[in-house]
Design a protein that fits this description.
By secondary structure, the protein is an alpha/beta fold. Helix content is about 30%, strand content about 25%. Helix 3 packs parallel to helix 4. The protein is globular and about 45 Å long. The two termini are about 15 Å apart.
Length: about 180
Amino acid sequence: MKKALIIIDIQNDYFENGTMTLVHSDKACRKAKLLLDKFRAEALPVIFIQHIATRPDASFFLPNTKGAEIHQTISPLKSEKIVVKHYPNSFRETDLMQYLEETQTTDLVICGMMTHMCVDATTRAAKDFGFTISVIGDACATKDLEYNGKVVEANEVQNSFLSALNYFYSTVQTTEEYLNQ
């Protein structure tokens, strides 16, 4: 077994004064930093996923903007892998799978943003590729969504997506649970 930490899209646009502010992004980022510190201390692979928008109508993560930069709290080291993606699934049209194969990684610890989009898409794809996955729920953030004319609050979105991922695709844990196991 070899594990790696995947930190998805913890980028400036998701924080206060960004163009797509999420609910509790600061809290999730602090939790991700605890995971990052543990993986660094144990010299385990860390992979940063950075979304750069390519759609003409995109309103956030625009190329060459401060908003698209990885948040300074979790700044990657020069030795750590950064995967740039353009779709919610971090495996789609990237070198993520090749890197995981080269490093003989079998287990993934996933955190990041947005829970209902890129964390979900990446986790489901990773399971389809045969990885064993832990999603660290409190190190993820999302936002209010709207469906059928009704607002679904971020807390409900978070709980719904994490509970769905916990059924088959992953084991969902808190940062504390993961760090204390």
